[in-house]
Amino acid sequence: MTYGKIDELAINTIRTLAVDATFAANSGHPGAPMGMAPVAHVLFNKFMTFNPKNPDWPNRDRFVLSNCALMRAASCRAGESEMKLNLRGVMSWMKPCFSQLLRFSCVNFIIAGLFLTIPRSSAVNGHGCMLQYALLHLFGYALSMDDLKHFRQVDSITPGHPEAHDTPGIEVTTGPLGQGLSNAVGLAVAQAHTAAYFNKPGFDLINNYTYCFFGDGCAMEGIASEAASIAGHLQLGNLIAIYDDNHISIDGDIKCAFTEDVMARFEAYGWHTQWVQHGDTDLKGIEEAIAKAKEVKDKPSVIKLTTTIGFGSLLQGTGGVHGNALKADDIKQLKVKFGFDPEKTFVVPQEVYDLYHKHAAEGAAAEQEWNQLFEKYGSEYKELHDDFARRVTKALPEGWQNKLPTYKPTDPAVATRKLSESVLEAIYEVIPELVSGSADLTSSNNTRWKKAVDFQPPNLGIGNYAGRYMRYGVREHAMAAMMNGMSAYGTIIPAGGTFLNFVSYAAGAVRLSSLSHQRVIYVATHDSIGLGEDGPTHQPIETLAHFRALPNMMVWRPADGNETSAAYYMALTSKGTPSILALTRQNLPHLEGSTIEKAIKGGYVALEDKEANITLVSTGSEVSLCLEAVKTLKEKYNIKARVASLPCVEVFDAQSKEYRLSVIPDGIASMSVEVMSTLGWEKYSHEQFGLNRFGASGPYKDVYKKFEFTPEGIAKRAAATVEFYKDVKPLRSPINRAFLQLI
Amino acid sequence: MTYGKIDELAINTIRTLAVDATFAANSGHPGAPMGMAPVAHVLFNKFMTFNPKNPDWPNRDRFVLSNCALMRAASCRAGESEMKLNLRGVMSWMKPCFSQLLRFSCVNFIIAGLFLTIPRSSAVNGHGCMLQYALLHLFGYALSMDDLKHFRQVDSITPGHPEAHDTPGIEVTTGPLGQGLSNAVGLAVAQAHTAAYFNKPGFDLINNYTYCFFGDGCAMEGIASEAASIAGHLQLGNLIAIYDDNHISIDGDIKCAFTEDVMARFEAYGWHTQWVQHGDTDLKGIEEAIAKAKEVKDKPSVIKLTTTIGFGSLLQGTGGVHGNALKADDIKQLKVKFGFDPEKTFVVPQEVYDLYHKHAAEGAAAEQEWNQLFEKYGSEYKELHDDFARRVTKALPEGWQNKLPTYKPTDPAVATRKLSESVLEAIYEVIPELVSGSADLTSSNNTRWKKAVDFQPPNLGIGNYAGRYMRYGVREHAMAAMMNGMSAYGTIIPAGGTFLNFVSYAAGAVRLSSLSHQRVIYVATHDSIGLGEDGPTHQPIETLAHFRALPNMMVWRPADGNETSAAYYMALTSKGTPSILALTRQNLPHLEGSTIEKAIKGGYVALEDKEANITLVSTGSEVSLCLEAVKTLKEKYNIKARVASLPCVEVFDAQSKEYRLSVIPDGIASMSVEVMSTLGWEKYSHEQFGLNRFGASGPYKDVYKKFEFTPEGIAKRAAATVEFYKDVKPLRSPINRAFLQLI
Predict the structure, then answer these.
(1) pLDDT one-digit tens code per residue, A280-299
(2) Where does Mg(2+) bind (chains A, B) (predicted)?
(3) B273 contacts in A (CB within 8 Å)?
(4) DSSP letter string, B366-428
(5) Are B176 and A501 a contacting pair at CB < 8 A?
(6) Are residues A605 and A514 in the same domain?
(7) What pTM value is reported for the model?
(8) Most buried of A310, A399, B378, B428 (most Cβ within 10 A)?
(9) Domain co-membership, B608 together with B639
(10) Can you give the residue range of the structural domain that contains B189?
(11) Helix H or strand E encompassing A444
C-alpha cells in the first residue's frame, strides 16, 4: 500500500510527544522513540491486531520493546489480588482452624500491601519507553495526556520505565538489556505450544505473532545470544524481531566494541534475515519486509532496520540524544521541521487520533469474531474449551492438590530432587498447563516425567510443539527469561531446572520473575556441599542468601517428601510469586513431624519439647541432622532441645506473629543450622551454625564431617549457645522486633 | 612432521590414566579426556612452550581447558600469604600504634586461615579434568602418580576439579561453563597489552599464545558468546581455541537443543575458522590446523575438531561416557585394544615419560634464554625492566598511596562515583598495571581518566594495544570473566565498571574472582534507589546481601571521599581478594570523622558520644543521613546517639574483637541504616532499617522521602529501638557471639 501525509503526521506526533515528555521530566531517552517511530507506526497500524479496550484478549498479537516493555493486559491492574502468596490456598488446608483464617486475612492485607508496592517496580530499561507510552495513549489504552505529562514522577503511571501493573497496556516487565528478546522467544514458544495443543480443524484459535524491537545493547548481551540460538533451533516462525541498527550505544559509536556481523550471526542460529536500509523514511520497505517475514513459517525472522537515533534533532545520530532530553532550541527547530507549532507542547492532531482509533476499533471487532469462534469451539470441544477458559484465569483444576504425594516416617529415604520428580509425575496429568524443562541437566534435575514429550519442531523427529518438556540447552539465563515470557503469555506454568549454584547465571532474569510477578518455578538441585565430589564451583554458599534478599521470591528448601509437596503446592498456587526449590542430591529421611499442612506455613515445629532449653532452627538436609543432635544434646550435655523446620522463610514471615512465636518462642535460646552462608539467619535465631567459606570436593559424608555438620558438631555449638544466653533477661525470640519493616 | 607408534602410545596412556582414575574414584568424567587426548598431545608436545619446573615463567604459553582448569604457576602455592586482605598494608597506615600491630598479627593468622581454606574451593567443572592431571603428571609438574590415585578424595591435590592453589600446574580456576573461553580472551588481552607495553626492537619479550579447549556446553553459554564477540572485535591473533565437536552434552545428542552453525557464528564475530574432521586420529591434520592458526595474526582462531567422546570405550560417542566411570569389562577391552595389560592400572610406559620430559627440558631451556634476554633488556630499558619485575610480584610501587586523594569536611559534596574517578585520575600514572574499563557505561561509571587511551586494534584508529582503557561493550558477564583472566596473566590489575544492579548479570564470574583469588575491582555505580528516575529495575535491593554472602569478596560502600580512597587502597593492596565498590550517583557530603586510616579498618566511629543510648550503624549515602538524625533524636526524643560507619563489613570482621566492640559497644542498643535489603545486618545491629521491597521511579529525594529515609524516619525507628531494648540485661553488642564461625 502507499503512505502519505497522514502517516508522516502520525510518526512525527509520536516523535514530538517523546520530545515533550522527556523535556518536561528533564530526564529520559528521546532518541530511540524518534528513530523507531516509523516502524512502530507501520507495525501497529498495518500488522498488529489488538483491542485497547480489552488488552487481555488471549489471541492478541504480542509486542516487546526489548530493554523496554511489552504491550499487555491491563488486567494486571485488577490482578493485584493474585499478586500474593496463595494464603487462601493455605487456608483451604486449614478449614478446621477458623481462628487461623482471621489471622490470615489480616496477613493477607499486609501481603497485598507488599505486592501492591511491587508494581511500582515492574520497571524496564528506559530506552524508548516514551515510544511505548505515546502508542498506548494514541491507540486509546487507558493512559491520558496528563499521564504523559507526569512522565518519571513518583507514583505516576508513566514512571521512568513502564510498569506492567500500573500502566494498562504494558504486557510484562522486561528491563535490563537482553531480557526483552528472550521474553519474546518465551512468548513465541507459548504461542506455538498453545496453538498445537488447542487448535483444531476449522478452529485456528491461537495464531498470534510476537513482535520484538531490539537494539545493539541487547544484541551484545549473552542472554540474547542464548535466546536467539534456541529460537532458531525451535524454528519459531511466529517470532519477528526488528533490529534497530542505529550504531549508537552509551559509549558512543558501536565501532569501539561491537563490529561483528549481527545478521550473519542470526543466520548461523537459523533465522531468516532482511535489511531495510532507510528505516527513517522507507515505510513501504518496512511493510514489505514485515509481510515477507510473516510468510516465513519455519524460521524466526529478524529485520535489520538502519535508523538515525534522535531523527530530526540537531544531535541526530549521536550519543547526545540517547539518554538526555533535547535542548529548547533544538526542540523548536525540530517542531518547525515537522510542521508543528514550536510554541505548543503535547500536541496530537485529531486526524492522528482518528487513524489510530479506527485501527483500535478493527481490533475490537476481531476480538468479537474470536469470541464467537471460541464459543463455537466450546460446543464441539467442551473439555479443551473449559481447560483454556480456566487457564487464563490462573486458577488450577479443582482438587488437583489431592494428587500431591504424602509420606510416612517409615518410607525409605529419598533425595528431594527425586521427590520433586515424584510430584511432577503425580500432577502432570491434572495440571496440563505445567511445562517442565532443564538447562541440559535433565537426568540430574529429575525434571522430566516418564511419558513427557519434548517441545520440538516436528521435522526433527524428536518431539512436537504440543510437547510439554523444554530442552533449554546450557542456557540458564535465557531459560529464566523465556520462562518469564511463557508465564506472561497466560496459558502455561513453566518449571525449569539447573543446579542451584547456576541459578546465579540467571540472576538478571530471576530478579525480573519477581519484579513482574511471574509464576515461574526454578527447580534448583544439588543445593549444597551435599553434592560432594563435584566440589566448590558447584557447591552453593551465597546463593540462598542472595535470593532470600530478593523481594517477591519464595525460596524453598524442603527437608523431606511432605515438605517437597508443600513447596510445589505453594509454588503452583501463588499466582504472582516465583519460586526457587532448592533440592538435594543426597537421600534424606522423612520426618516424624512433617505434613503438607504444616509445611505450607513456611515454618513449623518438627519436634516439640515444652521444657526445651534451645530451639534448633533448620532447613532441608540439616533438619534430620538436628533431630539426631537433639539426642546427643540430651545424652552428652543434658540439654533439652526442640527443632523448628523453616523450609521457606518468606512464607513463614507471612504468618501471624502469634504463630511465628509458637515456632520460635520467647524465653529460650535458638540456633540456626544450614550448611551455607549464615547471612540472614540472625533474623530467626540467636546464634548461627553455617558455612561462611567455600566447600570441598569429596564423598559428601566426608565433606559434612570435615565441616562438623554432624550431630556432635551441632550439639557442641548448641550447648555453647545455651551457656551464652543463660544470663540474658528477658531472652526474647528474634521474632520480636522494635518496629515493622517497610514492605 | 610424521607421527608414529610413540605418539599413539602417549595418547593412549593419557586415555588409560583417565579411565583408571575415574574408575578408582567411581566418579568423574572420562569421556572428554579420551576424546581430546590426541589434540592435547599434539598441542602440548609440538606447540606449547612451558617449564614444569617453573610454571611461573611470564612468557609461557597459556592453556585453558574451558570448563576445566588452566595450566599455571605453582607459585599460587607459595602465594598463600598473598591470599588475604592486606593487613600489613593496613598496618603501614598505623605505624604509631604498635599494640594494633600485635592484634593484627593474630587477626592475620585467622585471615590466613580463612584463605588457606579457599584454595580447596578454587575448583572447576569436571569435564576433562583428568586430562589436565594426566598431562601435569606426564610432563613432570609436581603431581605424583599417588596424587592421580587419590582423585576426588577430600584433601587430595586432585580434587573433583583442579584447584589452582593446591595443584601445581593449574593456572587459574575457571569452572562453570563458558568461563574458560572468556578467561582465555582475558589472558590474550593481557598478553597483547603487555607485549605492546614492554616489547622493544630486538626484545620480543612477550610473545606467548593462549590456547583454549571448549565444548558444546561452553558454546551454548551466553558468556562465551559475549567473549567471542569482543575477541573478534579486538582482533586477538594470539588466541587459538579448539572446539571439541563431539555432539554430546548431558541431555544426550545436541540435536535436541543446539543445531546452529557454530563456525558460521564465529566467522560472524570475526574469527578465523578451520575444521579437522577426524580429530580422534588425524594428528597431522591437527598439527597443520594449529600451525595455520598461528600464522593468522589479525584474528582469533577457532578449530572445529570432530571427536568421539569416550573414544575406545564400548559406549564411545554416547552420553554414557560423559559423567560416569567406565565399567570393568569395558576398561578391559579398551586396554587390550590400546595394547595395554588389562590387569594393570595407572601404567605409564617409560618412553612416554621420556618423550614428554624431553619437551619439558626444551621448555626449561627456552626459559633460560628468555631470562638472559630479560637481563639484557634491563641494561637497555632499566625502568621498564624493573616495572615488569615488580608487577609479577604483585607488589605496588613504593609510596603510591601518597597519591590517594584526601578530603576535609568543608570540601564540596560529590557523588562517590566521581570520587572514584578522582582516585583513578590521581593514581593511574603511578600504577601502570591498572587497566580500567566499563561495560558500555563509561560516562556513568566515571571509570576513564582524561588522558586514557583505549585498548583497541590499531587499524581501527581509535586506540592501540598499549591502551589501558577497555570498552567491554554491554557484556557484563564476559567483562568479569575476562578480568579474571587478565588478572591471572600476572602483569595487570583490571578494574571494570557497570551499574551495581548489573553486576548480578556477571554473578557466575564474580564468584570465580573470589574462588580463584583474583585482584579484580568491580566499579559498581548507581548503588541504590538514590539513582532516582531510572527506577526499580536499576535499583539494587538484594545485591549487596548477595555479594556479602560470597566468601573472599570485599564489598565496599564508601560514604565520602576518604572512604572512597580507603576502598581503593584495600582493593589494590589485597593481592588475593576481589572487590566490589558500590558507589552513588547522587552527591554526598564529606564526613567530620572520616580518614583513610580509619576507613581501611572496614568500620569506625564516625560520631562518638560516650553517653549515647544507641549506635546507628550505616554505610554509604545513609551515613550522613544518620548524622543528621542524631540531631533530630536529641531535639525531638532527647535521645543521645553515636554513629558507626561500616564501609566494608568483611574488612571490619577481620579486626580484633576489642576494636569491633569499640565501634559497636556493649550496653546500648544499635540500629543499622542501609537503603536496601536488611538481610545480614542483624550481625552488626539489634534492629535494622532498610528496604525489603523494590524501589520506585522519581527524583531521588522524593524516592528517599517516600520510603522515610530521612532524619525523621531514622530517628523515629531509633527511638523505638531504644525503648524496645531498655529492659534487656545484659544488653550485649551483636559483636559478641556464643561461638566462632567456621572459616
Answers:
(1) 999 999 999 999 999 999 99
(2) 216, 246, 248
(3) none
(4) HHHHHHHHHHHHHHH-HHHHHHHHHHTTTPPPTTGGGGS----TTSPPEEHHHHHHHHHHHHT
(5) yes
(6) no
(7) 0.94
(8) A310
(9) yes
(10) 5-80+121-362
(11) helix A442-445
Residues A340 and A146: their CA atoms lie apart, in Å, by 20
Residue B534 Cα, gap to closest chain A Cα (Å) = 5
Residue A13 within any structural domain of the chain: yes
Active site residue A608: no
Q: Do A698 and B473 touch (CB under 8 A)?
A: no
Q: What are the Cα distances from residue A49, in Å, to A46, A186, B591? A: 9, 20, 58
pLDDT tier, A163 (very low <50, low <70, confident <90, very high otherwise):
low
Active-site residue among B476, B563, B650, B674? B476
Q: What is the pLDDT of residue B133?
A: 87
Q: How far apart are CA A667 and CA A574, in angstroms?
A: 35
- Chain A neighbors of B232, CB-CB under 8 A: 259-260
Q: What is the pLDDT of residues B573-626, one digit of tens each?
A: 999 999 999 999 999 999 998 999 999 999 999 999 999 999 999 999 999 999
Distances (CA, A) of A405 to A92, A568, A683: 17, 11, 32
Contact B537 A121 (CB under 8 A): yes
Helix (H) or strand (E) run with residue A508 in it: helix A507-515
Residue in chain B lying closest to A717 (CA): B739
B550/A473 Cβ within 8 A: no
Largest CA distance in chain B: 90
Alpha-carbon gap: B329 to the closest alpha carbon of chain A (Å): 24
Q: pLDDT per residue over B66-120, tens digit each?
A: 864 333 322 222 233 333 455 444 444 433 332 222 222 323 323 322 332 222 2
State mean pLDDT over A504-509: 98
Q: What is the pLDDT of residues B151-162, one digit of tens each?
A: 888 888 877 666
Nearest residue on chain A to B534, judged by CA atoms? Answer: A160
CA of B472 to nearest chain A CA: how many angstroms apart? 6
Contact B423, B568 (CB under 8 A): yes
**Rounded-to-integer distance, Cα B303 and Cα B143, Å:** 30
For β-strands B239-245 and B210-214, DSSP reports them as: parallel
Residue A178: its chain B contacts at CB < 8 A? 474
* Shared-domain flag, residues B581 and B617: no
Nearest-Cα distance to chain A for B402, in Å, is: 32
pLDDT per residue as tens digits for the range A380-389: 999 999 999 9
User: How many domains does chain A divide into?
Assistant: 3
Look up the CATH number of the domain holding residue B629: 3.40.50.920
Contact between chains at B153 and A698 (C-beta distance less than 8 A): yes
Q: In this prediction, does ipTM exceed 0.85?
A: yes
| Mean pLDDT, residues A79-102 | 38
Cβ atoms B465, B455 nearer than 8 A: yes
Contacts of B454 in chain A (CB under 8 A): 256
- Write out the binding residues of B for Mg(2+): 216, 246, 248
Catalytic residue among A163, A226, A433, A476: A476
Domain edge (last residue) among B588, B615, B642: B588
Q: Which residues of chain B lie closer than 8 angstroms to A123, CB-CB?
A: 534-538, 697
Whether A385 is covered by a domain: the verdict is no
**Judgement on whether residues A132 and A271 belong to the same structural domain of the protein:** yes
CB contact under 8 A, B176 and A692: no
Residues B665, B533 share a domain = no
